[in-house]
Amino acid sequence: MDIKPTGGKIWSLGLQHVLAMYAGAILVPLLVGRALNLTAEQLSYLVAIDLLTCGIATMLQAWKNKYLGIGLPVMLGSSFVAITPMIGIGNQYGLNAIYGAIIAAGLFVFLFAGFFGKIIRLFPPVVTGTVVTVIGLSLIPTGIRNMAGGANSPEFGSLTNFLLSFGVLALILIINRFFTGFMRSLSVLIGIVAGTVVAFMIGKVNFSSVSEASWFHLPQLFMFGMPEFKIAPILTMIIVCMVIVVESTGVFLALGKVCDQKLTPQDMTRGYRTEGLAIVLGGMFNAFPYNTFAQNVGLVELSRVKTRNVIVAAASILIVLGLVPKIAALATVIPAAVLGGATVVLFGMVVASGIRMLTEVDFKEQRNLLVVACSISLGIGATVVPELFAGLPSALRIIVSDGTITGSLSAIFLNLFFNLSLKWKRPATIPAQVEPIKQHG
């Protein structure tokens, strides 16, 4: 039986949604900010503005009208897909090029939202499963480096970092083994908090950034300077946002099933358009590209609460948190080793989700095996050996040297190549293969 909460229960359930997605929401700004060597003050701002724009984006998606909002109880957060491309763009073109690319890509999604319902057929399970798997595999090295203490840490690989990171990992696994329901959904957040407490007890946590942070701060447009619009970063981010749209489509469909709501193409278009607007806002306020968080779908199914007012309450809580830099600064004191223990689980779950999608693929078809094999090989190869593309012009290098983008493009184009070639060359002689082609094309 579905539950319709009232009064204080709405806010408590909204807080539950915030807690379920909080760890994932703060990880992206922390990983990107540290990789780009931002100061503690800049990192605190990045976390705060990320929480604020998460709240605004969620509110927009819940506010269903003629043009915006899918009208489902969805939570939006910063996408893991964008981590390595943002770091790559930042290192090669600078911080402002990241935000120019995010704004341009968000406008692309917003303006072409109506076409994504048609384009989405180019992303069958063989493509989406491969893309999600490559995303997870490309992110795992970042998690492992953090487990050792962070790439530039003087204590990289120390016994202390090893024990901290594996302690967090062990706690997360123990909670998932012996607890169920909401407690299990908070396992990553509990692991991060417990690991940070232990790190504080052994002198590995510095709270100076928290004491220096203000209690209230209004968001500021272009905090890090005016955005720069450069073609290679923009193309890279558009591809990233296409992948985000594919991810969100799966979440929309899953949540529609949970809520017994049959989604129309118009519903999907409003959902895509809202995500495009959220991505533009992320670029304007120096935040991130946003997508619909899958972990909150499980919480909706678990709680049986399917009303949007709970999501509005959760969005309001995120907005308030984003206006208080001192709370955001608490996230910046988390040691890299603690983050590493948690991110290995999260990034590994991304890989597992991709593998689960691939179980829907007919691997008796040789073309599907080739799509997956080549795409994963090229995606991981580009992550591990980016020097492969050193001889290319810089505009191309920024696109193909990122494993996520290389793997995604490979999966999309190889799927089109095999399916279109089969349709074009032998449509009359192999009628039995027409239906599988439609399913995978």
TrEMBL record:
Note the topology in the membrane: Multi-pass membrane protein
The listed locations are:
Cell membrane
Pfam families hit by this protein = Xan_ur_permease
Q: Which UniProt keywords apply?
A: Cell membrane, Membrane, Transmembrane, Transmembrane helix, Transport
Record-annotated membrane-spanning stretches:
12-31, 67-87, 93-115, 122-144, 156-175, 182-202, 231-255, 310-328, 334-357, 369-389, 395-418
Per its UniProt record, what InterPro entries does this chain match?
Answer: NCS2, UacT-like, Xan_ur_permease
The similarity comment for this entry is: Belongs to the nucleobase:cation symporter-2 (NCS2) (TC 2.A.40) family.
Q: What is this protein called?
A: Nucleobase:cation symporter-2 family protein
Species name for this entry?
A: Paenibacillus nicotianae
